[in-house]
Amino acid sequence: MSQQHRILVGDCIGMMRTLPDESVHTCVTSPPYYRLRDYGVDGQIGLEQRPAVFIARLVEVFREVRRVLRADGTIWVNMGDSYAGSWGAHGRDDMGVGVSTISQRQVMASHRKSKATTHAEYKPKDLMGMPWRLAFALQDDGWYLRQDIIWHKPNPMPESTRDRCTKAHEYLFLLSKSRRYHYDSNAIREPANLTGKGNANGYRGGAYVNGTTFANAEGGKRTRPGNTVTTNGVGWGHGTDKASRSRSRVPVPTGWDTSTGEGGHGAFHKDGAERKRRDSFKRDDSKREQAIPGQSKGTHRPDRDESSYDTATRNKRSVWTVATHAFKDAHFATFPPDLIRPCILAGAPRGGLVLDPFGGAGTTSLVSMQEGRRSIICELNPEYAALARARIDAAWLDGAAQMDVFRDSAPAA
Fold it and tell me: 5-187+316-407 architecture in CATH?
């Protein structure tokens, strides 16, 4: 197990230099937020006096990530923002109003606070824009900036600020090493009826996991995002046991038709029916010229194959609703497993290698294990590395009976 999920203790750049070139499929990480907290370790990133120095150090980290990343690899980077003049995570302006962009739940999880983020480049109360400064710096350094994803937090803690909205989102950036890269969109498809009539409860893509349902304006129901992973009985999620893999990538959503008849769900799950199909030229009001004499306008031409569309699911959208929750054994904030699950599913194939240079409590390794991927995390603080190892070992023992993916005869990509 230790070879499948490794923890490298020390400076992340130095640790990554021990890894071979182009050996990692994807990198999923959340660097330290600027001036949020003191981790109590020499050489840490995040306490630099000037924002430009902070960004430059992160660019250096991701240069080493680029070396170990495969040519078709991606990185997924989560980062929160901060305000000039704020005092660490609490954030106070001259009127005593909270100015941190970090939720109070994260503040409570942080036991050491950094000094005030006062800089000549910024006016007091300025939003510093650190996520976008990092994204543009990485773009300037050669990365392809492919997408900004909004992490919407449905349960933000109230803030005492009276001159702006309560912060309820962070950014997650998708960047690639090359123009063409591995991205498994089918692994993270979501129900097509999230806002229409119907019931999406039970679908386990991205944030919509073990949630509840509520009525929408059109008389249907919609899933409210949950916090936990849909499992197959022992705490293991998507595709890590033979039965789940034989069916396909995700469990059948509650209420979806799995029959072998018309309109079943079989094109997405092998034991069901074919996907719903639409006529290539179905619109009755089409103004297209008649292609064949005697054929009515806007109908399917019999000499063409019928086009097939998946009408039950859709490409995942760029706003991900994932609730925050504190990890009780950690004295620092950890990102939710369901925030990074789509990143790992889309970014690395089964059996692929996931890297996190800022490993923290090992959440990236835990989700990688649940999804049948390998992992390497780097952690500067030995105490946090020990905590991550304990979590990984416990999860491995709990799910060992189900974890046969590395003995599977199917070759990894």
Answer: 3-Layer(aba) Sandwich (3.40)
